[in-house]
Design brief:
11 helices
Length: 199
């Protein structure tokens, strides 16, 4: 009973939020509850926490869109300290999260609700957005997506992870090694987004 009361109150709180930081706080709590329920193997609690998280992310995306629009309008005039828009960094939101949450806000409500309620699947942000693309007819694969998937499957097929990186680096020219040292930190930072995009 307490779980149901908490679930209903969090859903109501999301609807009442008018600030990004408020709804992000609910989102973060739901994310923590989701992780706890997953560890406890409580499937029903995990599902409810995930639903709350998605609803909060969708609401945050809507508010972030509004914030961006207001910021653009404010930029045309003289900005004031009272009306200065909050930054994503100040809100503790990454650029990737902001973009994806705004995409979630653009998913038609009927499709969003259907994705959350589907008993056969465990929804992710990717699956919800992919469902919208399929409904809208945009099913053509992105060329960059295909290229990355191909390189990763090549990496696995060639069993490169089983070779010491020093051996591979040693087979390169000095210029190639310099390029690798320059690119790897950017590539690593880019890969760190995987946790965000698979939630």
């Amino acid at each position: 009973m307490n779980d149901l009361v908490r679930y209903d109150s969090m859903i109501h709180a999301i609807a009442e939020c008018h600030r990004v930081d408020e709804v992000k706080d609910i989102r973060d709590k739901a994310s923590a509850l989701e992780a706890y329920a997953r560890q406890a193997k409580n499937v029903d609690a995990e599902r409810k926490a995930r639903e709350i998280r998605f609803r909060a992310e969708r609401k945050a995306g809507d508010l972030l869109h509004d914030m961006r629009q207001k910021g653009a309008r404010a930029g045309r005039g003289k900005p004031t300290a009272e009306h200065k828009p909050s930054t994503l960094k100040g809100l503790g939101i990454s650029e990737t999260q902001s973009a994806r949450w705004q995409q979630l806000a653009n998913v038609p409500e009927e499709e969003f609700e259907a994705a959350l309620r589907d008993p056969e699947t465990k929804p992710t942000t990717n699956s919800i957005l992919a469902g919208m693309k399929a409904v809208n007819g945009a099913t053509k694969m992105d060329n960059d997506s295909l290229w990355i998937c191909g390189r990763l499957t090549d990496f696995e097929r060639m069993k490169l992870a089983e070779r010491p990186f020093a051996d591979i680096l040693g087979g390169m020219t000095e210029n190639m090694q310099a390029d690798v040292r320059r690119i790897i930190p950017k590539f690593t930072e880019w890969l760190m987004q995987i946790e965000e995009v698979t939630q």
